[in-house]
């Protein structure tokens, strides 16, 4: 018989994270496009980010038929948060002579699956790209980063909001994430964690 789960944070009821999830406002809009393989992942950080932000939404799929409608919001400057040769630092967007708030579109999945989302959705790939510079190192101690500067989706959103919404601080979004990581480490045992992850 499956363990009861919290309908909001999707964690087992005995490990519910809802008490740690903040309720934060932002001018910046966040649209997370999540690959279906991430939905049932034990560390679904995008879901935690959207729960903690009032101006955020999450869509799941590979091909987003309604993407053009979602992106057509003239009240926002829409940008794709994804690295690339033509990506400009997020700090440049802050300096633009445009008073409209930014809407960040954030693909959620492994690097390979995130690239697939861009490939399958040309309107997504066509968006102006922005990237993070000088972001803090990842707190994701359970997974070896595939490249320098890699962050979980939640960490990337927090870092981006801290640039766009300065001096506001969005690190409160990391509290359930840290608890989730600590819980995973406790479940595997300190010795196993040290043996397999501290290298």
UniProtKB/TrEMBL annotation:
Q: Where is the DTW domain?
A: 2-189
The EC number(s) attached to this protein equal 2.5.1.25
Name of the protein described by the UniProt record: tRNA-uridine aminocarboxypropyltransferase
Q: Which domain of life is it from?
A: Bacteria
Name the family the entry cites.
Belongs to the TDD superfamily. DTWD2 family.
Give the enzyme's main class according to its UniProt record, as a single word.
transferase
Any idea which UniProt keywords this protein has?
Answer: S-adenosyl-L-methionine, Transferase, tRNA processing
Q: Tell me yes or no: is S-adenosyl-L-methionine among this UniProt entry's keywords.
A: yes
Output the InterPro entries linked to this UniProt entry: DTW, DTWD2/TAPT
């Amino acid at each position: 018989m499956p363990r009861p789960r919290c309908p909001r944070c999707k964690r087992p009821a005995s490990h519910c994270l809802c008490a740690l999830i903040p309720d934060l406002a932002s001018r910046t809009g966040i649209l997370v496009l999540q690959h279906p393989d991430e939905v049932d992942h034990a560390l679904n950080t995008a879901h935690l980010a959207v729960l903690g932000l009032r101006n955020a939404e999450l869509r799941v799929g590979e091909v987003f038929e309604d993407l053009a409608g979602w992106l057509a919001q003239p009240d926002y400057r829409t940008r794709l948060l994804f690295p690339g040769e033509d990506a400009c630092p997020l700090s440049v967007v802050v300096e633009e002579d445009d008073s409209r708030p930014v809407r960040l579109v954030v693909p959620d999945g492994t690097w390979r699956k995130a690239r697939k989302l861009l490939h399958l959705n040309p309107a997504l790939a066509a968006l102006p790209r922005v990237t993070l510079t000088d972001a803090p190192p990842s707190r994701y101690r359970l997974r070896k980063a595939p490249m320098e500067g890699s962050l979980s989706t939640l960490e990337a959103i927090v870092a981006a909001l801290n640039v766009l919404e300065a001096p506001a601080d969005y690190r409160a979004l990391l509290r359930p994430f840290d608890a989730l990581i600590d819980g995973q480490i406790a479940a595997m045992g300190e010795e196993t964690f040290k043996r397999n992850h501290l290298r």
